[in-house]
Structure formats: C-alpha cells, structure tokens
C-alpha cells in the first residue's frame, strides 16, 4: 500500500516536471506573435514645372517569430502598395519694357550748334598744315541723336573733307589734322573759304530737321597756304583791279603819243593858215 502511494507520487512529479520543461513551447504554440498593421499617408509635392502632387501610401506587413528557450529566431515578410495622384496649376507673369518716346511741340524750331572755338562772331583764318580744333555747344535739341558727323566743304574745288564720323553726341569738339588730309586727299586743300557742317549721323547735310531734332549747323572759316617771299618787282596781284599788264601799258602809251602828235600837228597847221590870227 505504501509502495503504491510512493509510485503514484513519483509519477505525478515526473508529469509536472515534463509540463514545466515544455511550458515555453506550449505557450508559443498557443499565443503566436502578430505584427501590427500600419497605415500611413504621405504627401509628395513637385513644383519644378508648376505642378503639385498629393498621394497616399499603405504598407501592410505580417511577421512571425518563434523562440526556444532563451534563444529566439524570427523571420518576417512584408508587402506594400502605394498610389499617388495630384493636380497642380502654374502661374506665369510676363513683363514688357517699352521705350519712352519724347513728345515735341511741332511748332518748335529744329536744334542746332553754336561755335565756341573759334567764336562765330568773326571769320577765322587757319594755315594749311596745322591741327585745327573746333568746339561747339548744342542748342534747342530736344531729341538727342546717338552720333553726329562733322565735315568741311570747299566750294572752290567742290570737295568735302570728313573730320569725324559717328562722333558721340556727348563729345562736342573735334581736331582736324589738315596736313594729313592735304597729303592723302584727292583734292588738296586750297587757299579759300570753307564751311564746317555738323549734322546727325545717318542723315544728309542738306536734310531739313523736324522740330526738336538736330539740324545741320554751319560755320565759315578761311584757310591759306604759306609761300616763300616774292620780290616786289615780280609780284602780281591777280585780285587787284588797278593792276595792268605790260601789253596794256604799251597800248596806253601809244594812244597818248598819238593824241599828242595830233594836237601838235593841228596847232602848227592852224597857225600857218592864220586861223588863230
């Protein structure tokens, strides 16, 4: 009887020991781990070309793990899907620059230039071969040109000499190297009167400017060529009215001689016939 009770007690201990030993696996088999499901919303924006995109993304995943004793191993798998849609608008602003047009009263006269070097109150004479500086101020110019041309014209040889081409409007002076032009020009400079003309580049010196624009400005001056001294007896003034040639002097001498002979002859003849008695 005692031995039977002892045997039953020993069997119970072994059964409880077996249950205690396999308890972690038993719990894991009954209560398996579940991974939580996460749902997220993402927003993506793109404005590089003036559009915006808004979308949603949903990730769903499951994972299982198993532990044995104090050492655990686990594997996990997951899948995710996402869609995105969006609409956007783009706004473009254009700016345009327009040039301002100067409005001028058509009743106003055309602009011009007033000489400052030399003064325009008197005629100035320059020696051919030297450098000549001309200076001026613009007057009554409402519509300023970009550039001007400066020329010198001589009516004696019908020649035109260019002093400056496309000269900036802000520059109001020019230097004429007469020696260079005299050596290279087709028509050499003469001792004569010249006309300086200042006018808007791209136009003609004879054009009539409208109100407020630069019209051709003119200035007269003289030029001369120096010569070696001439003896007084050989000098002939070609522009003097009182100058006479040798032929003219001989003719006048013959005329006066014939008049004297006629007067003397008539006096002798009259005295011989008693006209004066």
Give the ordered list of helices and strands: HHEEEEEEEEEHEEH
CATH superfamily of the domain at 112-224: Immunoglobulins
How big a fraction of the residues is strand? 25-35%
The residue-averaged pLDDT reads 74
Radius of gyration: 61 Å
Proper CATH architecture of the domain at 112-224: Sandwich
Regions with little confidence, pLDDT below 50 for 5+ residues: 36-72, 91-101
User: Regarding CATH, which class of the domain at 112-224?
Assistant: Mainly Beta
Q: Work out the number of β strands.
A: 11
Structural class estimated from helices and strands: alpha+beta
Amino- and carboxy-terminal Cα gap: 235 Å
How many helices? The count is 4
Describe the structure.
The chain has 277 residues and is α+β, with helices and mostly antiparallel strands. It has a domain at 112-224: Sandwich (Immunoglobulin-like), CATH 2.60.40. 22% of the residues lie in helices and 32% in strands. The chain has helices at residues 2-21, 23-30, 178-184, 246-272, and strands at residues 39-40, 54-68, 71-85, 112-117, 125-127, 131-139, 147-154, 159-168, 173-177, 192-200, 217-224. The chain has a 5-stranded mixed β-sheet with strand order 5-11-10-7-8, with no helix packed on it. The chain has a 3-stranded antiparallel β-sheet with strand order 1-2-3, with helices on one face. The chain has a 3-stranded antiparallel β-sheet with strand order 4-6-9. Strand 7 and strand 8 (159-168) form a beta hairpin. The radius of gyration is 61 Å and the shape is rod-shaped. The model is unreliable at 36-72 and 91-101 (pLDDT under 50). Keywords: Membrane, Signal, Transmembrane, Transmembrane helix. This is DUF7137 domain-containing protein. Residues 37-116 are annotated as: Disordered.
